[in-house]
Amino acid sequence: MKKNILVEQIRGLLLKSEAVADNTKVLHYKRVEALVGSAFAELVQVLAKKEEGEIESGYVRDYYSQPVLNTAGMQYVTLPCGIVPLPGGKGVWYIKPTGSHINYTASNQIMTSAFRSIPVSECINDTVFRLGTDPAGEKAIIFQHIGDSQKRSIRIVDYGLVRDFESYNDNDDVHLPNESYSFLIEKIMLWVGQRYNDKQNNGQ
Amino acid sequence: MTTAYNCDQLVNEALLGTRDFDGSRYMEAAMYLLRGLRDFQIFHSASVKQSWVKISGVKTISFPDDYLNFVSLGINVGGKIFTYSKSSKLVLPSDPLGYALNDVKQEGDFNVNVGYQYGSNGYNSEGYFALDPAHDRIVLKQEFIDLAATSTRTEILLSYVANGIDGDLKNSFVPGAAANMLIAFIEYKLVASMPEKYPANFRSDKYTEYVIEAEKFDLLALPSVEELYDAIYETSSQGIRR
């Protein structure tokens, strides 16, 4: 289903009428879009736990041959869009050197630091990635090298992101497998409730 | 397909066995691999590594980086290893200056050689050494090193149990026969360390799996029928039947 149709449908359900000038203040398109975005994030989180296969087939957008930036000794890729906050940074579904079949391993600063202090770090020559912020304060994938990693010189990468709802264009398809549509509606109804028509104001 | 596994493959296969497809626990699994390798090399594998190591100015040698356990120390004489003997009576050169100043010469009635006054002079031609793990080294007996036959020697042959890591995990191999045991060990440690994620029966299944794999591997160390026959032949002799 197209994103704009989905948002309008849900707005219609909440309003119990067409969106007109009188009632759009409360349920403006952008406000409903944000609501659907929050429910969408929860939907993806549930699917990531129960039906992981759906994530890659329905929600991951691939980006190919993207440059690795290097500033002040820091190697990173700034994210081109927002991502769903999946646990363990899995909003970055994968990242790998362009042309390679092996993905970088996900890690985090605390874990990498802990492992660097024990002997195992002396027999690993590899590069891991973590989610963080680039020098400009933007959300970024940051590379961390352990030992003498051959991946230190890699400058072009491919990656797949689980985009957040806001990053979808109006005409982008939103993947809604099984009973996901009902899930979205139920969530939003639970949060907002259906609006009562104002009978004294032309039913709007 | 190669018959030997490299250690990186062992770790990755164990991660898949615990359904960690994104490898987020790679370093943790590698840590358990090192534990498993130590266990494997010391208690299950019969392989011994030999390495020529340099003798330092104070007649010590440093343990190699992959050293786990001592086997023997010696020099090559005519293609065979002449081994040194372990001694607990050597002066360790923790204070080289004191060692030199306090060295007492034998003279008069003070002679440490057994039987000196009652027959031929006992002479031990063996070299001695002492393990000094606190300083990560082996101490050689000064006098033996000074003998003419060995005085020019700058290296000594150390046989030891190594941890099997050669550089990094991708370049370190273990025999294919031991792969199942090591993978089972890593999987067991990974699930055992996360009781909140893996149910108790799954954890105990993984432990049982490891124990079974270890027992199976150890069966390979049993002697073959031919080796048993040889042992019987070598220890028996023909005699007159009575």
Tell me what you see in this structure:
The complex is a heterodimer of chains A (204) and B (242). Chain A is of the alpha+beta class and 204 residues long. Chain A has 2 domains: 3-54 and 172-192, no CATH class; 60-162, no CATH class. Chain A has 5 helices and 8 strands; from the N terminus they run αααβββββαβββα. Chain A has helices at 3-15, 29-50, 52-58, 109-116, 180-192; strands at residues 60-67, 69-71, 74-78, 92-97, 105-106, 126-133, 139-146, 156-162. In chain A, strands 2-3-7-6-5 form a 5-stranded mixed beta sheet. Chain A has a 3-stranded antiparallel beta sheet with strand order 1-8-4. In chain A, α1 (3-15) crosses α2 (29-50). Chain A starts with a helix and ends in a 12-residue tail after the last helix. Chain B has 242 residues and is of the alpha+beta class. Chain B folds into 2 domains: 5-45 and 175-234, no CATH class; 49-162, no CATH class. Helices cover 36% and strands 19% of the residues of chain B. Chain B has 7 helices and 10 strands. In chain B, the strands form 3 sheets. A 4-stranded antiparallel beta sheet of chain B has the order 2-9-4-5. A 4-stranded mixed beta sheet of chain B has the order 3-8-7-6. In chain B, α3 (96-101) links the parallel β6 (85-86) and β7. Chain B is extended. The relative contact order of chain B is 0.20. The chains are: A alpha+beta (204), B alpha+beta (242). Chains A and B meet through β5 and α4 of A and α2 of B.
Which tags fit this structure?
heterodimer; A: about 200 residues; alpha+beta; 2 domains; five-stranded mixed sheet; three-stranded antiparallel sheet; 5 helices; 8 strands; about 25% strand; B: about 240 residues; four-stranded antiparallel sheet; four-stranded mixed sheet; 7 helices; 10 strands; about 20% strand; extended
